[in-house]
Structures are given as structure tokens and as C-alpha cells.
């Protein structure tokens, strides 16, 4: 198996991109990544696109071919594959590209993620997202994602004494990080009061506990590590690409307060990378709701179970803290175009490791981690990246 | 000779429903709604009130204020998105009621919430070209919001009538500018009872884009700045949007206040900006300058610069003011509201 490197990155601005279509977005992100890597279309050997629900959002399927077509790659009949694992589609597209290069099948591969969510109203968007849950056992009987994560929050509060303020601080910290990220959907700083006085969505989760509906796309260029210097002076190496599954339904899980697939994927990743958890300098984790970040930093092993909330309040997860989490602003402030998120996380970590993250730069960051969750934890993808 | 408004009249049904009452039925938090929309209550028509009766009341009020007679009016255009008939004009009903028939141009207009200002522009053209001496432009609606839709908190009823002419002008319309695109932010197809809308898409790409571009276009065309005006009136689908565009353009909340009726009126659609303008004319001093931008989904905006003349003091108080029309409301519970709005089908 060959080591794989990221030699180019691209990411659109995230937000309500009313004047940009699905096609505009992936072309923009893809071209940015190609320019960054100084790669021409003719060199691309394969393409993996993470996308959750173009079928419901746009009534468009077969987007693998669509992406290849509108990227001008049909001349070489480049194999283009759409990858889907709900909100982990992007992370899975990245892992699929890594496997393709590591195996020796391809040398130059694009892994991209995209979602165009604002062409439909809130109700249809909610229904599209509910498809990430079990339609028969969860969604069809009224469970929504805020509702499912609210149950996890309640259980976490009951079991570990996690507080309303600790949850709110996740959003406060991520908005603060987002305020320094030019591509973030929300760049306004907020307070704990902003969160706790925002409209109730699913008790105890309020509007500012939830990630938004977002349009956006991100892409990376992958090559064998041995060839990386042909493309860039600052390749970022993929030390691990791990994935784990669990039951799709929340009620069939061992625990409501842990996402086991996160723990397993992280264990596999750290074993693969031959690294201790303490070596991680910066991480992008899946904060679709504030409770999800608290569970993530515990399940990834950065903090003891139950210590995620207090650590967040203590500033240990902010830039300058023990382990800066979600320097991009996370899903909460940077936005959550579901299929793009996993790739955007990698783009953010690459910028951090290159030292190109501007005001939100984590000093001396050498190793970073991305954590991308599908649904309530039916799929988890963890990548470890290093300089 | 200056062209402008020679008289105006307003009608607002007396019934109201509060945000709390609608929120109670649908399980919403009324404080969230009030904070989000900055609306407290909205007007509701009586069972036998519709766009035609509202337009007639507004037209009669305008004539009463001026001493003009129906026969003096050369054209009547009624702008609404809730004309009682799909085929059969509201304008003829109004014309007959105010005795303006039969030597008369008449038609119904529709451009979502800005059909009334489009009618004003049409009258301006006809008067300027001396085809007619006076033209009456009306914006009136009994707007529809589907039960449990966010629109239900604001979709209100009311209307205003403006007579445009060259004699006894109480407010000169100095200039006008429109900004139009084809934008699917809000629509109702033939046969549908309630409109559909694009949710948050109605904001930035709808209201804000067209209001800001239209207002900036007219400021540029007239070489003016917000400081040149005493009052500003915007289409007011809720209390948030007009406040936001006012501050983006550099108008103060003080300039906006007198023409901002939405908190107690709701969104009167085609009547919205025109009732706001009437509220300003109710109190304006001679020489005051007014900037107005109406917005209609679909989408477009009509902007106007208006200067109040000395004639204004002769007509203020001769017909009910907007403030008077908003006084002494009768509050309905949701059951009576449903009956008033014909939501109960027997």
C-alpha cells in the first residue's frame, strides 16, 4: 500500500449561494484545487464526489457523470463515482480517493464533496436530511435529526451533568473561530445568551445549537506521496483513513451518550498512523449539533467521557487551548453542506498544517484529524493528516 | 405644472388577531415570532369584506377629502393579488360605487405587493400626457396565508386610494424608478387558494435585492442622499425587513417611523407601502420630502421621490387618518378569524 498526499485544495464560500448552481459550485471548488496543485484536467485519472441528496434537493441523480461532464473530463472518459453516506459522504469520498491512490489503481485523483440545499424550502430540506435516519423506524414515525440529537443531549446531561451553558459554549467558540474564516457562512461572534435565548428547536437544543442549511463544495487533489513534490513544496500526508459503521437507528445502539463508530474509527486511525492521541494539534469534528461536538471530543479520546463540556467551557478546545477544535467554525458557523463537509474538514486541516490558516492559525500545527459522521453515527470516517 | 397626489384615502378593517392567538393554535412560541417578525397583530376583514369593498371604502375616503366627484376621474386602476374575481374587474365595481362610470379607463393590476404603485405610475403617465385630468390608483388586498404557514402571522387586509392629477397637488411626485427581474420568490397559481413561497429565498434574492437596487437607482437618478428626505416608506412584509433596508441605505429609524405601520396592521400587501405613505401624509408639513420604495414579489420595486406642497394643510383631517383607522380594534380568537377568512368550509 502506498502512502498518499494531498497536493491541492479548493473550497467555495459556504452559505446561501442563491446565484450559484450545483454545477457552478463543484466547478469552482474543483478548479481551485487543480490550480492549487498545478494539475491539468488531462492528468486526472479518477474522481470521487461525495453528495448526500441531489435527488431530493435537485431531482438530479447520476451526479458522478454530471460532475465529470461539466468539469470537462469526459474527453478522457475519466471514471467518476458518486459516494453517499449521508452527512459523511464527503469524508467517504476522501477515503475512497485515498484507497484508489494507495492501492496503485490511480495516481492523480480528485476527491470532492458538494451539496446544494437551498433550492428547496425548509420542509423539503428537513425531509431530505431525515433520509439519513432509518425511514421506517425513525423518520416515518416523526423523528428528526434535532429530535434524535436532543435525546442524546438529554441523556448526556443526565449521565454526566453536562450543562446548558456547556452546550452553548460549543456554538460560541465555533462562531468565534468562524469569524476568522472568510469562507464561513456565519462570521458573527455570539454569546452564551445568544444561544440560550434563541428559539427552541427540540428541547434542550435551540436554534444556535444547530448547524445551518448550506450550499458549498470542496475538493482535494490526491497523489502518491512519492510523487507529491512534483506538484507542491508543501504536501500534506494522509497517515490514516479509517471508517466504521454502526446501527443506523439510535435506539439500537449500545449507548445514547457515545457514538461507538467514532471510537472504533478513531482507534483504527491511530493504529494505522502509529500515533498517540496527544500528537493531534488540531481537529475538525462533526458538530452538526453542539452536543455532537462534546460527544466527539470524548469519543475520539481527547477528553474523558463527561469531561467534554467542562473542557469546552475552560477554553481547552478554542484556538490557543489544549487542542483547538473546529478552527474553520465547524458545521455550526462555517456551515454544513452535508456532502461537502467531510472534504471541507480536510481542506481546513491542510491549511492549518501548511501554516496558511491566517488569523485562525494554530501555531506549529503538525498533525491534524478530521471526524465526519453520517446520521446519528451509522457511519463515521476519521482521517489523520500530517506535514 | 407639477404632477402628483391630489388626494388620498385609506381603509383598514376593524378586526384584528394577535400573534399570541395564532401561536397558541399552532404551538409556536409567540415571543420568538414577535422578535423574529416584529409584528404584534394584524388586521382581518369582516366576512363580507373583500378587495372590492376595501377599495371602494378607500376611494370614497379619497374623494371625500378632496371635494372631487367620481365623474372627475378619468381612469381607475386597482392593484391587488386578491381580486375577488379571476375574470371580471374589481376596478369596475369601484368605479360604479363612486359614480365614475361610464366615460372611464379602468383595469385591474397584479404585481404581488406593488400593483398599487404600478397603478400610480400608469396614472402619472396618462396625466402627464393629458389623456386624463385625474387618475385613481388603488392598492388593496385581503391577503392569504395558509393555516400554519409563517405568512399567517402577517397576511392582513387594507387598502389605499390615490388620485393623481395636476390641480391642487398636495404632494408632488418628483420622480419614479423601477427595478424588475423574473424571480420566483412568492407565487400563487390559478385556482390555488394560498400562495407558495421560497422561504428564506424571499429575503436576500427577493425583497432585499429589489428594494435596495430600486432605492439606490432612484437616489442616483435624482442625485439625492437619504439626508435629503424627512420620511422614508418601504414595503413592510414584517417589521424587520424595512428596518434593515433603511439602515443599509443610510436612512434613520426616525425617518422610517411614521410610515411603518406593520406592527399593528400586518402586511396589507398591495396596500402595505401605500398605507405607510398615507400615514406620512396625515402629518407631513408643507415642504417635507418623502422617499418611498414598494416591493412586489416576482419581482420588482417601484421607488418615488415626493415633495409635500402647501395644499396639504387644507386636506389633512378631512378623512380618517391611518392612526384613527388603527384605533379601537375588535380582537378575534382563531375560531372567529377562521370564519372571517372563510377557512371553514361547510
Describe this structure in words.
- Chain A has 387 residues and is an alpha/beta fold.
- In chain A, 36% of the residues lie in helices and 17% in strands.
- Chain B is α/β, with parallel strands linked by helices.
- In chain B, helix 6 crosses helix 7.
- Chain B has helices spanning 19-26, 30-37, 51-66, 90-97, 115-128, 203-221, 240-249, 253-257, 262-265, 272-281, 312-315, 322-325, 334-340, and strands at 4-11, 15-18, 41-44, 75-79, 105-109, 134-142, 157-165, 171-180, 186-187, 196-197, 231-234, 289-296, 300-308, 330-331.
- The model of chain B has no long low-confidence stretch (mean pLDDT 97).
- Helix content of chain B is 34%, strand content 23%.
- Chain B folds into two domains: 4-171 and 314-337, Thiolase/Chalcone synthase (Peroxisomal Thiolase, Chain A, domain 1, 3-Layer(aba) Sandwich); 174-313, Thiolase/Chalcone synthase (Peroxisomal Thiolase, Chain A, domain 1).
- Classes of the chains: A alpha/beta (387), B alpha/beta (346).
- The interface between A and B is small, with 8 and 10 residues.
Give a brief outline of the structure.
The complex is a heterodimer of chains A (387) and B (346). With 387 residues, chain A is an alpha/beta fold.
Throw out a few tags for this protein.
heterodimer, A: 387 residues, alpha/beta, Peroxisomal Thiolase, Chain A, domain 1, 2 domains, 9-stranded mixed beta sheet, two-stranded antiparallel sheet, 13 helices, 17% strand, globular, B: 346 residues, 3-stranded mixed beta sheet, 34% helix, 23% strand
Amino acid at each position: 500500500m502506498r502512502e498518499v498526499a494531498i497536493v491541492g485544495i479548493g473550497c467555495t464560500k459556504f452559505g446561501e449561494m442563491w446565484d450559484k448552481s450545483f454545477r457552478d459550485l463543484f466547478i469552482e471548488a474543483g478548479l481551485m484545487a487543480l490550480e492549487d496543485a498545478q494539475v491539468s484536467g488531462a492528468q486526472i485519472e479518477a474522481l470521487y464526489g461525495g453528495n448526500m441528496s441531489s435527488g431530493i434537493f435537485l431531482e438530479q441523480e447520476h451526479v458522478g457523470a454530471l460532475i465529470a461532464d461539466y468539469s470537462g473530463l469526459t474527453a478522457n472518459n475519466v471514471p467518476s463515482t458518486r459516494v453517499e453516506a449521508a452527512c459523511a459522504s464527503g469524508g467517504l469520498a476522501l477515503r475512497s480517493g485515498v484507497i484508489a491512490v494507495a492501492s496503485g489503481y490511480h495516481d492523480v485523483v480528485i476527491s470532492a464533496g458538494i451539496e446544494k440545499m437551498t433550492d428547496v424550502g425548509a420542509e423539503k430540506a428537513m425531509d431530505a436530511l431525515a433520509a439519513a435516519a432509518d425511514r421506517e423506524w425513525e423518520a416515518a414515525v416523526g423523528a428528526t435529526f434535532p429530535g434524535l440529537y436532543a435525546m442524546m443531549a438529554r441523556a448526556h446531561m443526565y449521565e454526566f451533568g453536562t450543562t446548558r451553558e456547556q452546550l452553548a459554549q460549543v456554538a460560541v467558540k465555533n462562531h468565534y473561530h468562524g469569524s476568522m474564516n472568510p469562507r464561513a457562512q456565519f462570521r458573527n461572534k455570539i454569546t452564551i445568551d445568544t444561544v440560550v435565548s434563541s428559539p427552541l428547536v427540540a428541547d434542550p437544543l435551540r436554534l444556535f445549537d444547530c448547524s445551518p442549511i448550506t450550499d458549498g463544495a470542496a475538493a482535494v487533489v490526491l497523489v502518491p506521496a512519492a510523487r507529491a513534490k512534483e506538484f507542491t513544496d508543501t504536501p500534506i500526508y494522509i497517515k490514516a483513513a479509517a471508517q466504521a459503521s454502526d446501527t443506523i437507528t439510535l435506539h439500537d445502539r449500545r449507548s445514547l451518550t457515545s457514538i461507538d463508530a467514532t471510537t472504533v474509527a478513531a482507534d483504527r486511525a491511530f493504529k494505522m498512523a502509529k500515533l498517540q492521541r496527544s500528537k493531534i494539534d488540531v481537529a475538525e469534528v462533526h458538530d452538526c449539533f453542539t452536543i455532537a461536538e462534546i460527544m466527539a471530543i470524548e469519543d475520539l479520546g481527547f477528553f474523558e467521557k463527561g469531561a467534554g463540556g467542562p473542557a469546552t467551557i475552560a477554553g481547552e478546545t478554542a484556538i490557543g487551548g489544549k487542542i483547538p477544535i473546529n478552527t474553520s467554525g465547524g458545521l455550526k458557523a462555517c456551515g454544513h453542506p452535508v456532502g461537502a463537509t467531510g472534504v471541507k474538514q480536510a481542506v481546513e486541516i491542510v491549511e492549518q498544517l501548511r501554516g496558511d490558516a491566517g488569523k485562525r492559525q494554530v501555531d506549529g500545527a503538525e498533525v491534524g484529524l478530521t471526524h465526519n459522521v453520517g446520521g446519528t453515527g451509522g457511519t463515521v470516517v476519521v482521517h489523520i493528516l500530517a506535514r | 405644472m407639477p404632477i402628483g397626489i391630489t388626494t388620498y384615502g385609506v381603509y383598514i378593517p376593524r378586526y384584528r388577531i394577535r400573534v399570541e392567538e395564532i401561536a397558541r393554535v399552532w404551538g409556536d412560541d409567540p415571543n420568538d415570532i414577535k422578535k423574529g417578525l416584529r409584528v404584534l397583530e394584524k388586521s382581518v376583514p369582516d366576512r363580507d369584506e373583500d378587495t372590492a369593498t376595501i377599495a371602494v371604502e378607500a376611494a370614497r375616503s379619497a374623494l371625500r377629502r378632496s371635494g372631487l366627484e367620481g365623474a372627475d376621474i378619468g381612469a381607475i386602476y386597482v392593484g391587488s393579488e386578491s381580486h375577488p374575481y379571476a375574470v371580471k374587474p374589481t376596478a369596475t365595481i369601484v368605479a360604479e360605487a363612486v359614480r365614475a362610470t361610464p366615460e372611464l379607463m379602468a383595469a385591474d393590476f397584479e404585481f404581488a405587493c406593488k400593483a398599487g404603485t404600478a397603478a400610480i405610475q400608469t396614472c402619472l403617465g396618462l396625466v402627464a400626457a393629458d389623456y386624463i385630468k385625474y387618475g385613481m390608483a388603488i392598492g388593496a388586498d385581503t391577503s392569504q396565508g395558509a393555516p400554519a404557514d409563517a405568512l399567517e402571522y402577517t397576511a392582513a387586509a387594507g387598502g389605499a386610494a390615490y388620485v393623481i392629477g395636476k390641480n391642487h397637488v398636495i404632494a408632488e411626485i418628483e420622480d419614479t424608478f423601477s427595478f424588475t427581474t423574473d424571480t420566483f420568490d412568492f407565487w400563487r397559481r390559478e385556482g390555488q387558494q394560498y400562495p407558495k413561497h421560497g422561504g428564506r429565498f424571499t429575503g436576500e434574492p427577493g425583497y432585499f435585492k429589489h428594494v435596495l437596487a430600486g432605492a439606490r437607482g432612484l437616489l442616483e437618478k435624482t442625485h439625492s442622499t437619504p439626508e435629503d428626505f424627512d420620511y422614508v416608506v418601504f414595503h413592510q412584509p414584517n417589521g424587520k425587513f424595512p428596518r434593515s433596508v433603511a439602515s443599509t441605505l443610510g436612512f434613520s429609524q426616525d425617518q422610517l417611523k411614521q410610515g411603518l405601520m406593520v406592527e399593528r396592521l400586518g402586511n396589507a400587501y398591495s396596500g402595505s407601502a401605500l398605507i405607510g405613505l398615507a400615514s406620512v401624509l396625515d402629518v407631513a408639513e408643507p415642504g417635507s420630502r418623502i422617499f418611498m420604495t414598494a416591493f412586489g414579489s416576482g419581482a420588482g420595486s417601484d421607488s418615488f421621490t415626493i415633495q409635500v406642497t402647501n395644499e396639504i394643510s387644507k386636506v389633512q383631517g378631512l378623512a380618517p387618518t391611518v392612526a384613527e383607522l388603527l384605533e379601537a380594534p375588535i380582537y378575534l380568537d382563531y375560531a372567529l378569524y377562521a370564519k372571517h377568512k372563510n377557512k371553514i368550509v361547510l
